[in-house]
Amino acid sequence: MKNTLKIAFATFLVASQGYAFDVAGTNVLSADATAVPIVDNAGNPIAQGGGYIAIGTFSDVPTNETSMLIPTTFTAFGTPNGANGNSFANGIGADGFYDFSSSASIPEGSTDAPVGEQAYVVIGNALTLADSEFFAVLTLGEVFGTENLAGSGGLTININDSNVDSALVVGNRLDDFEIANVATFNRAVQLVGVPEPSSALLSLVGLAFIARRRR
């Protein structure tokens, strides 16, 4: 009887802890020049409560030239932790910086996606990825796994000035970036975008027409 009670109590404790695979990331590990602000295409830091950020996987990894395909090839993982959802937020309240996390259950033994797939931080300039026109993508090569027997597991993608070069998949790196004449950072990441296919085609047609007229 005692053994049965012990087993039942242990099972209750494990269940009450809640199972979750947690992903997290930040670009401001230290409030100094090693932090890496994210700025829009005009060079303005993404405002707190603005922009889009998530961690997840790609069906087809983008490049700067194919960044407009990001909304259709990216799958965000889990439910964001915190009141700001997928918008930028951090403990110091400074624009350009995020402290993001999300969670979902991936029970031990799972083999379906995203298990075994590489994790990416995806950033957009609008409140949703679908509405964004400019993007950045970063990764440190972390791969999704599963929870352990106790029901916990996770990965972290923390960006600073020493690893941003190798982490940057989509976006432009800026050096010695200054914000509002207050602080200068060794590195920054600027969002990039490419014209819609129709716009790009019209531009090419226009250039060809001009070239023909000049002959």
Mean pLDDT: 87
Taken together, the total number of domains comes to: 1
N-to-C order of helices and strands: HEEEHEEEEEEHEEEH
Number of strands: 12
Strand content: 25-35%
Measured as a percent range, the helix fraction is: 10-25%
Low-confidence stretches: 1-17, 198-215
Distance separating the two termini: 97 Å
In what order do the strands lie side by side in the largest sheet? 4-3-7-8-10
Structural class: alpha+beta
Tell me about the biggest sheet? Answer: 5 strands, antiparallel
CA-based gyration radius: 21 Å
**What is the general shape?**
globular
Description:
With 215 residues, this protein is α+β, with helices and mostly antiparallel strands. The chain has one domain (19-214). The protein has helices at 2-17, 70-73, 164-167, 197-214, and strands at 20-26, 38-39, 52-58, 74-76, 79-80, 99-104, 120-124, 135-138, 152-158, 168-170, 172-179, 183-190. Strands 4-3-7-8-10 form a five-stranded antiparallel beta sheet. It has a four-stranded mixed beta sheet with strand order 5-6-1-9, with no helix packed on it. The relative contact order is 0.22.
